[in-house]
C-alpha cells in the first residue's frame, strides 16, 4: 500500500553549516520511513520567510509531494531566514556564500554529484545569481518562482522603493512585518498604522504589513481567494524582517533593469544578465499571472535572456489565477502547481 506522506510522517534532521564568511545557516533534511529513490532537491525560501514556509498548514504541501515522488528533500534557511538571528544581508552575500555552501554540504552528505532546486522570490534571485556566475555548476535544474534575474515591480512598489526607503533607512535598519505587534519608535508606529488603514482588505496585520514590505496590491503577496483560513492565519507568524541593505540592492537593480551586484567580488559580475550564463542548469521559470510583488514580465525577461544564450532549453509557465507566494501556499496548489513542478524536476 502506498501511503501519502503528511507532516506527521516527516522526520527532520537539522544541519548547521558555515556559509564560509563566519555566518551559520541551517539545512533541514526531511526524511520519512522510506528511503529516497531519487536525488537531492534543495528548497530556497523567499525574503522575510524561512525553510518552514514550504510547510504551510495544508493537507498536501510541496514537501509531501516531493517526498512521495522519491526525492531527498533539503530545505535551506539562508541568512535572511526568520529562523536565524536577524542581520543585514544582500543578495550578493547569499549568492556568494550561502548557496554554494549549502550545495556542497548536500552533495557531501548524499554522495550525489548533482541536485535540483526549487526556489521562491529572493531565494530564486540569489540562486539565479550564483548559477549564472558559475558558482554552483552542480545544480542541474532550477525551478524558480516569481523573479529570477529581472525584477519588474508594480509602479507603486517602485515609488515605495525609491521614495519611502531613503526616508525610512535614516532611522530603521529593517522593515519589520512583525510591527503588527506594536512597534517601538514613532516612525515604525506611524508606518504600521498607515499600512493597516490603507490595507482594509483584511484584518490580519501581518498580511497588511507583508503587502507593504513587498510589492503593491490588496494583498500583494497572494490572492485571498487562493489561501484557506488556516493558512491566512498562519502567515501572521511566518513573516519577519526585510533589511534596508536588501532594498538598496533591489533599488539599484530596478534602475538597471536587471539584478546588479552591490560590490562585485568573488566571481559575481556587476550586472548578472549582461554576460552569458556560466551554467548548464535548465531553468523552469514560474510566474503567477496576478503576481503583485514581481510582475510576470520579470520571468518573461529572464526567460528571453536564457533563450538568447541557450535556445530551446528553458521553460516559462504563467499560472493563471495565482499571485506570488500562493504558488506554494495556495489551498489548490497541490492540483494546480506542484504537478507542474514535479514534471520539470523529472523531465
Ligand atoms: Zn489578508
From TrEMBL:
Cofactor: FAD
Annotated AB hydrolase-1 domain residues: 40-185
One Pfam family linked to the record: Abhydrolase_1
InterPro entries: AB_hydrolase_1, AB_hydrolase_fold, Cholesterol_Oxidase
Protein keywords: FAD, Flavoprotein, Hydrolase, Oxidoreductase
Molecular-function annotations in GO: hydrolase activity
Family as reported in the entry's similarity comment: Belongs to the GMC oxidoreductase family.
Name listed for the protein in its UniProt record: Alpha/beta fold hydrolase
Lineage of producing organism: Bacteria, Bacillati, Actinomycetota, Actinomycetes, Micrococcales
